[in-house]
Amino acid sequence: MADCSSVSAKSMHVPSLMLLLRFRRNRLALAYHDQGEAEKESAAMVARLIALLVLLFCAGGAVAETRVTLADGRSYLIAVPEGVKQPPLVVMLHGGGGNGAQSARSSGMTAPALRRGFAIAYPDGSGRSRMKTWNAGHCCARAALTRMDDVAFVLRVADDAARRFGTDRSNLFVAGMSNGGMLAERIAAERPREVRAVASVAGVLDLARIKPRGAVPVLHMHGTEDEMVPYAGGRGALGLTYAAAEDVLTAFLQAQRRGLTKTRKVIDQARDGMQTEKFTYASSSGRPEVVFYRIVGGGHAWPGGSRGRSTTRDINAPHEIFAFFKAHLRK
């Protein structure tokens, strides 16, 4: 029988469930030898149903995020790996018009986080509906118009998670998609000492208003055919103007204030009409400090995700992000 207890949440008591199912299976096996054909068929059917329930349980994910509401009413979801003392924390920021629960479902970040010993939090942006946004500078929507201090909010989530769940505050990582990626890069630019590394997919730093203040490891993924946040910069589909992705790359490279070795790798294993160019800027020790993925033909999409023809399968965003974050863990 399949065992999915290795990826579980404390509130679900997965090991206990698995023990119960194994006990039922063993009883059925013993009964099988002592019964007639009709009873054997019935026992076999029940065994198959139990196996199916386990498979459905595993497929549905044995992970349950816990929702936390802060004193100011803002909230986040969090999943914490079992048996890991002071796990590093990744704060995953949803795109504009999304929310934490939606990001937890669609990003595919929770399972790889727990498998690698990371805790992961999904905070909600601000807004009057379930369609939330972040203040990343000039974007986006109500959060930017009301000048919500979302940089402080994300750091408050990290502080709260350390206090409630024992995460390692000195090992904080931030990732985001689109508007969430913009905020991740804003945090890196404005509060470089607070984070170990950040990752942005299809979201650029607001260079017109914000400049990096110190060296922070940054991973950035961007499609050359992105219509929402154009790769070359300029006006996007919703009327906002953005910096060019490569200008943001240059700004973070300049903030490193040291010589880095550049390498280029072409990835085209999916044969999906797109091609990914991976540029790695490594320190003298070989550690990647800045990694930039130019997805030729890619759109405003999460690499490896399930939506749209402009979503490349050449790379998997969670896999690449966690490999990068792992390289920057404080020991």
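^ that was protein a. below is b, sequence first then the tokens
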Amino acid sequence: IENLKTNRKVLLLLLIPFVLIIFTGFDLKVILILNSVVLIHQVISAVLLNRSRQEAIRLAEDKYRRKLEQSVVEKTAELINSNQELTRLAREDDVTSLDNRRHFISELDQAIEEIRSGQKRHQIMLFYMDIDNFRSINDIYGHEAGDLLLQAVSLRLKQHLPNEGLLARLGGDEFVMSFCTDDNYSGIEPLARQLTASFHKPIYTGGYVFNISLSIGITFYPQDGKDRSELLKNADLSMYYAKEQSQGSYIFFHDIPKALINRKNEIALKLRSADYDQEFKLHYQPYIRVSDGALIGAEALLRWNNPELGNISPAEFIPIAESIGEIVKIGNWVMLQAMNQIHNWHERYGSDITVSINISPIQLDQEGFLKNLKKLLEKTGANPQQIDLEITENSAVNREERLVDVFERINETGCSISIDDFGTGYSSLSYLKRFRIHRLKIAKPLIDSIAIDEDDHEIVSAIIAMARALKLRTIAEGVEEAAQLHKLRELDCDEIQGFYFSKPLPVRDFEERYLELLTEDTVPAPQRITDVADTNY
């Protein structure tokens, strides 16, 4: 618009002399001079205006370039800070700020490779450390206090970290320390003594006073493991052996009795080659309604009889199965057998009892767990409403965010969910409300002393009251004495399970004792629990 106005003005100025010639008779020469002056004026004005505009454009470009450069500098600084933060998060434990498991394993792998390739001629020393009775501290003081203790322990461990050593938290209350050394066992022992002795002093943090001890397992590379996995496994084994022998102690892997190591290795070998259908069996332990002694359901319990090793306790082989990656296959076999049994009992006896199946936390972590559950339900024809999946309290708490969705989808199949060993972790009302669960199984340690320990009695009473408020059923596991049953009846516990009523029974024995009654013309009145006590362990 501005250019259009300017052009009109120039045109008007050029036309004025010609108008003067026409109306006044001005001399043409004078007119041409006037026009020349006008043209020169306009050319000079245009040049000056153009220069002014170019200068304005240049100044604007400089301004925007400076702003852009400043923005680039700021964004680059933000990216650098973000990258540094991501790098820190990728290598640091969020509770203690020590190296995390991922970074520690990466560094350990690199150190092992340097020794293998001949770049270094040292050996690697690895300390695997665990806080004794840490779970009890969480139970008594809560999760936040537990985190404060972990932070204090990490600071104390740092004081003993050799130069160029690595210190990391693997998870939970487990710490590892590694470093290269030329020392032998006797040269390392003073450090082990210092570490255990340093925790003889109380820890003061956050207004708490903690008296704790540390159990340590020690391995050397390459003597005690051909790779990182074996080195860590043997250090972990050593730590647990030290804990079993005397809390607050340490032990070198090479000092563990070979018989124990051989036993674990032999069990692992036999598990990998086991014929499940021939060696594994499910026994069923009934759980009984307290009010009238009626059979409500049973828990499926795995038994293993190996042709060479004989009967092996689940307490012994299940942790090994978890450590070698066999537990998912075993768990799937258990689910298949239990579901087949549910369908079989329903067809033969018209039974609608619920069967509880224990689920390992490793199974829950599998991406295909829910898909496999649905597949087994379809394959066996078992009624999902007769299936109860038992998950331990600690495995539930440690996977709380992920399990909200998993539990929801399990409920959609029609199966129910129980929290096993309730009272051994640090559960909260919010955690119980978030999960769609149906029963709480009160942990055996609480039941063991319910008749003689007032505190345990009050804890069980509180659990039952809380469960009732949340519309959850309660079952007491490990009931072995009449006095325990009497207390549970007073507290209005819903169901019991334990040797006082029946040990776990093979399928045929369970059928004869409980299910064949269902096929008679008349169903007998429930027996009083005290009349059918089974003390056969």
